[in-house]
Give the backbone structure.
Amino acid sequence: MRTVRVAVVGAGPAGIYAAAGLVAAGPGHGVRVLVDVFDRLPTPYGLVRYGTAPDHQRIKEVVVALRAALAAPEIRFFGNVEYGGDLKLAELRQCYHAVVVATGAATDRPLTIPGADLPGSHGGADFVAWYNGHPDVPRDWPLTARSVAVLGAGNVALDIARMLAKPAAEQLATEIPDNVARGLAGNAARDIHLFARRGPADAKFTPLELRELAESPSVDVSVDPVGAEVSAAEEAAIGRSGQRRTVLRTLLDWVGREPTGAARRIHLHFRAAPVSLLGDERVETLRTERTETGPDGTITFTGEHRDWPVQAVYRAIGYRSTPLPDVPFDDAEAVVPGTAGRVVDLDHQVVPGLYATGWIRRGPVGLIGHTKSDAAETVGSLLADLAALPDPDSPGPEAIVELLRAKKIDFTTLAEWDRLDAYEISLGEASGRRRTKVVSRIAMINGGRDT
Ligand code: NAP
């Protein structure tokens, strides 16, 4: 049986599902597929580790299946290797028949309104990275604002509002690192305002995540009656979507809810689009404009403004993928362009041997499960093309290891991740947490030791 070698760039769910799919489906196409999965971080699991909120352990459980996939003898993990810097596409092409990019979307979609760059205006992705102990963000986060605005009506906005509202004591049982536990303990936020530019029928929340917002006894949640009305057209547009109907019902239940006297309050405002952030040296006011939704779902601005005194703003209006060196990128859509997982160049010509999967391929929408079907399509295309792909110059499994060593790249392996994983869990047990994440990159590489 012919052996083919594939490099996957990105060890989040998208990359791991693609690797597992290739190994499983290869023999059906008469080939044995060996896959090396690379990640710029020393650890696998991408946004499951660094994007999913620490109190979402149910979602994080997917790592059990991802770890099982990585255990396949045909798959190797190389962490702490940055595509583009440490390894170029041309170097990967010398060692592999094909390359799959699966680097996801980890930065914030820009908000282009006046004042968006004022101090006190934060990218939601940066805050998410901070509370998840990402090694590349500062250890301290300013949590001095008493009134905070969160922009956007998706699940990331819910995560951020919940993390800002829940008392630190309720977060400790999770997996937050020590610096985050200290930061949250000093969080001054009392009123957290979430702003949706559309009406409640068009919120992008999912039911479970929305209900969770009101689970803490220390947090009151209410919906501002202004903007919370639902037109017949909006109601009809929900159609038979049970999820959207449940979300709408929950939101309408919360309209005008009286506060119980809880220490922190989350207020949801609909049809309130952010139009500017005002302040002399830092954010002092968020200005919103009332919108109306037309029968076709488009929104129009009414000219009716409201000003909100806030000292911090979190922009949670969606993620954006970043371009990868030597890989075509559609800047308008912020995706790698392609067809059924085959990357195409800007003239729509297929680039042989180059594939994409996950959020970098289809944009930052959908839950982890959707990534699996996406990977299956990319795997199918790659395997269908294999007969046409020439053998690489250095096809042996050691070639890449020698190259990385020659470049003095301190890569991590699966065994090293297992060591760090066990260390983090033991550290957590000692302080009553599920795990305590190690944050310093050096310590991550050294199994927890910061030297
Ligand atoms: P999202 O679901 O696409 O929501 C983005 C929100 O930002 C939308 O409400 C959007 O409004 C709004 N928005 C976009 N541009 C805006 C602007 N210029 N001004 C004001 N609002 C603007 O994105 P996300 O929250 O980043 O989530 C990404 C994906 O990850 C989603 O599929 C989500 O479900 C998933 N996720 C899941 C969980 C979980 O716990 N299950 C947690 C986090 C994320 P419009 O609708 O008007 O465009």
Observations:
- The mean pLDDT is 95.
- The two ends are 46 Å apart (CA to CA).
- Residues 56, 59, 111, 151-157, 159, 196-198, 202, 204, 206, 209, 273-274, 316-319, 364-367 surround NAP (CB under 6 Å).
